[in-house]
Here is the input.
Amino acid sequence: MLKKIPLGILFIFLILLLSMVPVKVGGTGKSGDILSGKSFVDRSGNLIAVNPGFNSIISLSAVHTENLYFIGASKNITGVDRGSIFPFEVNKKQKYDISKPYDVEEIIRINPDYVLIEPSMIPRFNKPLSRLETAGISVVNLMSESLEDFDYYIRKLGILTSCNTESSLSQFKRDIGLLEENFRKHSDRKSVFVETSERGYYTLSNNSLLYRIFTLSGVEIINPQKNLLQKDQEYVKAGFNFIKDNNRNIDYYFTVTGPGFLGASRNSVSQNSRYNSIDAVKNGNFMELSSVFFNYTFRIIDGVKEINRAVYGSEYSYEGDKKLTRELFARTVYNYLNLETFTVTDTGYYDFKKYNHLYGSFQDVYYLDKDFNDIETVVMHGFLKPFKEGETEFFNRKSSITVPDLEQFFYLYKDFNSDEILNLFKQLNLEGQDVFSVSDLLKILNFLQGESV
Here is the structure.
């Protein structure tokens, strides 16, 4: 004979049972919806209802961290993951490692309003993330699902931080539109192969963000089985035989290195005899790209420009009649020599002064400045020295280029000694000048590119 179950116990049992059944959030049935100016659904399907005003955030994704800075939400950030190294100011923030139990407990002690993660973290860090949620921390799972979805993702960051993102997004869309319009003008479109891993010679699938960025750059992408790829497949194995079979069709060969990519470095390409059979590499049409441009951040624009500049050359218009200032020197040398943009991917970089300059640390050059890449690349090559006041660094944009500045450039670029530099000035009728123009620099660059002293 069955005993009667007390009503109170039955009620508790039903509550526990229901709590184990997944429920669609807000009835949307779709992860990622923005429901209002104060709420949205994250990638885990959780309803995130935000109290307007200041919300403290710990970002456990370098992508989120970078975007928070770009939308002006740095003040909301109370901590970041150890992989967050850009922009330079982020190194002043407390850093956490979600795989370390001590750091997890420290986050719980601090009790931020939100901890930001991305979908790829869930299978890797399920246990520590569950610990945060159990402790009552609101874990928000965000990431753009496509380039077209980027604005929704940024708007969610804006909702979390009470920041207006419209200006940043409008500029981003304008830049994308202008790039697409400009790159349609290329009558002779170049074909490229993009190596994402040297192990098996993997390349882009046509479902990846990187594929989309390369198409925005006005190039044709060579990859196998274009119509047979899985929807969520980011990369596809090409194999070296595929590369050899398409050798004559490859105008440029790119490798992608940095976090998330295993493409061959420039050094490894020079040491691997296999690459000698690739015409594009032999002809110098090779470039190693940094992966920092190929995440869902505002620097996607820089990635598009970098690819296009490598393939089609710079379209920069030189201002020949202007006095040669440090900023014009950087801009001219960067574009004329088509320098690969210097970026930082090593999390330990900021602990060492390897280049007599800490990347991104100038007090008078902002990471949102249009010529940030020009200046940092030229300085990181050593072509211009920074000005220092103690440990503080300045670029001094408007200062005139001096003879010692040019001597520094000649020495590092062409390994010229003092006599060769003096001879160069004589040949170009620049001897005795203290003030130079952009035209003078172009005359020098033309000479250096065309012949030796």
About this structure: The chain has 17 helices and 17 strands. Confidence is low (pLDDT under 50) at residues 9-29. The radius of gyration is 26 Å. The chain has three domains: 30-164, 174-295, 326-450.
